Amino acid sequence: MTTPFGKTASVRQIKFGENLRTEYVCARCDATYCELENMGAWRCTAYHPMVRANAQSVYECCGSPYLTAGCVKADHTTGEHNRMARAQSELETPINSEEALFMASLLDCPLDALKTRAWRFDDRTKQWRVCRVDWGARTQAMHKQYRQ
């Protein structure tokens, strides 16, 4: 296999590419997705940061009836991002610069087109951090119950 840059892909790149293209079914909204197009795209329509519904069968985060559309944008998931996170870093996926470039090459787009507001560069670790949920909206939804 060769990369779009004309180089022969390493075994690690081949496996990474296969993993990125593997199809999964979202545990929240039942959509089929692959990580290559999912990472940082926030396309899941069923994410509620407080997954429990209270006694009135409404979500504690937004007051919407149970099993209605999500109140926060998020990536699709097989379930690993459903936990209650205390810090944004718990809902981020680290990507090194080589992997980010390889992802852009697989999508046949410039790296800048791949990086959305969900992507940020961590100067300390020299890695990209891809937030899997809209952290600002999540924080606001988590605190909404205390404002009511």
SSE order and pairing:
Layout: H1 11-21, E1 23-25, E2 32-34, H2 35-38, E3 92-95, H3 97-107, H4 111-114, E4 119-122, E5 127-131, H5 135-147
Antiparallel strand pairs: 1-2, 3-5, 4-5
Helix pairs in contact: 1-3
Give a summary of the structure in a few sentences.
The protein has 148 residues and is α+β, with helices and mostly antiparallel strands. Helix content is 29%, strand content 13%.
Beta content? 5-15%
Strand order of the largest sheet: 3-5-4
The main sheet comes to: 3 strands, antiparallel
Choose one word for the global shape: elongated
> Can you give the mean pLDDT?
83
The number of distinct β-strands equals 5
Q: What helical percentage do the residues reach?
A: 25-40%
Total domain count = 1
Notes on the protein architecture:
This protein has 148 residues and is an alpha+beta fold. It has one domain (11-147). Helix content is 29%, strand content 13%. The protein has helices at 11-21, 35-38, 97-107, 111-114, 135-147, and strands spanning 23-25, 32-34, 92-95, 119-122, 127-131. The protein has a 3-stranded antiparallel beta sheet with strand order 3-5-4. A two-stranded antiparallel sheet has the order 1-2. Strand 4 (119-122) and strand 5 form a beta hairpin. Helix 1 crosses helix 3. The chain is elongated. 23% of the residues are buried.
